[in-house]
Each structure stands twice: as C-alpha cells, then as structure tokens.
Amino acid sequence: MKLHTTVAGAADDNIAAPAEANRDPRLRRRYPWVVFALAFGLLLADYMSRQVLSAVYPFLKSEWALSDSKLASLTSVVALMVGILTLPLSVLADRWGRVRSLVLMAVLWSAATLLCAVAANYEQMLAARFLVGVGEAAYGSVGIALVLSVFAARRHAALSGAFMAGGSFGSVLGVGLGGVLAVQFGWRWSFAVMAMFGLLLAALFSVFVSEVKLARNAADQHAGAVPPGGGFRAPVSTLFTNPSVVCAYVGSGFQIFTAAVLLSWMPSFFNRNYELAPDRAGTVASVFVLLVGSGMVCCGMITDRVSRVGMSRKWSAAIVFCAISLVCLGIGFSLAAGAAQLLLIGIGAFFSGGSSGPAAAMVANLTHPSVRASAFGTLTLVNSLLGLALGPFVVGVLADHLGLSAALRLTPLAYLLAIVALLLGKRLYPAGLRKLSAVEPAPGH
User: Fold this and answer.
1) How many angstroms separate the CA atoms of 245 and 248, rounded?
2) CA 428, CA 420: separation in Å to the nearest integer?
3) Cβ distance 159 to 140 under 8 Å?
4) In what helix (H) or strand (E) does residue 103 lie, and over which residues does it extend?
5) 29-44 burial by CB neighbour count: b if 16+ within 10 A, else e?
6) Which helix (H) or strand (E) holds 381?
7) DSSP 3-state helix, strand, coil percentages of the chain (rounded to 5)?
8) How far apart are CA 226 and CA 149, in angstroms?
9) Are 80 and 380 spatial neighbours (Cβ–Cβ below 8 Å)?
10) What pLDDT is stored for residue 29 in this prediction?
C-alpha cells in the first residue's frame, strides 16, 4: 500500500512538474498576499456596511424618535444573524467552495445595505439590517480560513489578528466616513456609498481568486484546503469534542464583548459626554476604533514572537491582553471626562481585542484543515452570540435604565469570564493536540 502510494505520488509530481516549473517563484510568493489583500478589503467593506449605522445613530434617533434599545437592536440584529447562520453557512462553504461563497455573501450584504439607504421607518431598516446580517454571516470565518490556507502556521496569530482587525478598520472607515457623508449629504448616502464599495470589491475578488489557484498555493499541500468533493474530511463533530478548542471559542467570545461595545457606542459616548456634534463625535470615536484594530494586529505579532519557543504561550498572551484591558477600561470609564479618562480608555481599547488573534490561532491549531472554515464559523458564532450581538444590546438596555456612562463602566467585567476560559484552555491544550492527532486517518486509508 505504501509503495503504491509513493509511486502514485511520484506520477502526480511528474505530471504537475512542468506546470510548476513554468510558474514564476515570485508569483508564488506574492499570490498569498494578493489573496490576503482582497479578502481583507472585503472585510473592510463588511464592517463599513455594518458599523456605518453607529455614525447615523443621532440622525435616526431624532428623525424616527427611537430609544437607545431600538437603536442597539439595529446593530445587534446583524450580529445575531451572523451568530445563528455562520456555522451552517461555513460548513456549506467548506463543501460548495469558499471563493463562490465569499462572492455571493459580499453581493448580498451590499445589496441589503442599499435597502438601508431607502428605508422609510424603523421596521424597514430592521428588515434591511436583518439581510445585511444574513449576507455577512459566514464571511469572517470563511475568509480567514481561506487566507490561512496559503500561509505557514508560524504566521497564523499575526494574520488572524490582522484579518480580524479589519473589522475595526472597517468600522473606523464606516463610522468616520459615514458621519461626514451624513452631515454633508444626508444619512442615506452613508449607506449607499458603503454598498457601492462592497460591490466593487466583490467583482475584483471574483476575478483574481479561484479555488484552483488556492489549491496550487496551499501552504500545507498534505492538509491544505480540500477541493469541493474530494479528499479526507474530518467529522464536523470534531469542532465540539475537543475541550481545549471549546475554551478558545468561549474565551474569544467574552473578550470581544467589550470591543464590540466600543465599536458601537463610542460615537454616542462622545456625542453625549463630551457634547460633540455627530460628525465630530464619529471622527473622534474612529480614533479609538482604530486603536482596537491596531491592537489586534500588534498583539497578534507579539503573540507569534513570544510563542516561538512554545505554542502554549499564545494562551498566556491572550490572558495578559484581557487583564490589561479590564483594568484600563474599568478605571477609565469611572473617571470624569478629560485627558486621564481618554488616555486610559485608549490603552484599554488597544488591548480590548488583542486576544482575537491568539484565540483564532489556537482554533486553527486544534482543528483539522478540512473543516477549518467550519471551525472559524463556530468561533464567529460564539463571538457573535457572546460578544458582537450581546455586548451592544446589553449596553443599550442598561443605558435606558442607568445612563450610557454607567453602562460602559460595567462592560469590562466580561473579561473576567474570558480569562477563566482561556486559563482552562491552556491547561487542556496538550490533551487537545493529542485528540487532534487522532483525527487524521492512517496512511493508505
């Protein structure tokens, strides 16, 4: 059996050799970065369409007389749909084709964003935002799986952090640009511009990225992306039967809770507590949102560096990032408006999503490549339910009863739950790796 496999493999190599020999090595090195750039661009469009709503909160509140809880529901419904649909759509993308799935998602959320631009009341806006959530449901999970498939594992934490930071950078663009457009041309143009940007990038992605090119440039040819319809596939149940990866899911979900609150409520915080006009509040808030994204990238790079001598250090790095944000944001939101408050909130914002990269890298390390999009779908599900959907909505409800400042003071407590989950995940990590190694079938089977 082994001899047959070796001969067959040699024959395959001989067939593929001429094609590989004709390929420019520089193109092979550049293509992964082309994939990353296009996937990252679509993620920017994703979050620009999602978070532009925060910039027009004051306009909708005034024009439609909406409560804070109703405003929050327009944000949370997107994250809720992402949470509900991300896993089934990610599983489907693993089998139907990741590239086709990503393009279809981008077209859907962009078209739904156009519907937001023409909404006449709260109910129509809620329905349009519902469709935005359906379109965005599995983009993050499928996109990051697609990107990691063409890069070596030593770069996964930094790439995961950078990719997930696209949400913050997209939020910066969505909030900042959306606020300016809303003041200059009306809030409806804020949605329309985001929609057109998404449609343009979807077209570019479909031109330059294909399943064949991804398979040819897979970082791990043995366990790389599995073409639809062939190759060994790990059971979907393995996404939930490894205790260590479950801890990574939960820890990531609770650590993103406060980051999601910052993305959604900072424009309103500056509008109310610092008495800034909506466009000015959106611009200032975008600086803090940018800190969230920059922190994800930097913390991912730091994690990859400190974990060179031991992969388990990724867990420790995630725990430290959570602790720093817990302390800084807890104190910062308790202070009076001023420079000291802004400094502490800025530090806390920088580390608020810093555990995203390490947690995603742990998910990648603990799941089989054939179900990796599904694994990131599960991660997105937990991030959405415990963080992106729950965080902004809880703060909206608390703000109706306690005021926005008091609600923001309570949100960093979610890091305590994240730290507990990450500590447990680190303890179970060696057993999790052994469990993963038992998934791969024996050679020749």
Assistant:
1) 5
2) 13
3) no
4) helix 98-117
5) eebbeebbebbbbbbb
6) helix 372-383
7) 85, 0, 15
8) 10
9) no
10) 72
Q: How many residues does the chain have?
A: 445
* pLDDT tens-digit series, residues 388-436: 778 888 888 898 889 889 999 999 999 999 999 999 999 999 998 888 8
Tokens of 117: 């631009």
Residue-wise pLDDT for 65-107, tens only, equals 888 888 888 888 887 887 788 778 887 877 777 888 889 999 9
Angle (deg, nearest 10), helices 122-136 and 98-117: 170
Q: Which residue is it, tokens 């094609």?
A: 19
Give the 3-state secondary structure of 71-94: HHHHHHHHHHHHHHHHHHHHHHHH
- The residue among 85, 116, 114, 90 whose CA lies nearest residue 102 is 90
* Residue 201 tokens, joined: 């990038």
> In this structure, what token pair is assigned to residue 421?
């989950």
Is 42's pLDDT higher than 80? Answer: yes
Tokens 């790389």 belong to 224
Does residue 172 surpass a pLDDT of 80? no
In whole angstroms, give the CA distance from residue 358 to residue 355.
5
Backbone torsions φ then ψ of 240, nearest 5 degrees: -125, -10
Dihedral of the alpha carbons of 34, 91, 93, 375, in degrees to the nearest 10? 0
Residue of 188, 164, 168, 163 lying closest to 178 (CA atoms): 188
Could you give the CA distance from residue 140 to residue 147 in angstroms, rounded to a whole number? 11
Nearest C-alpha neighbor of 98 from the set 254, 188, 206: 206
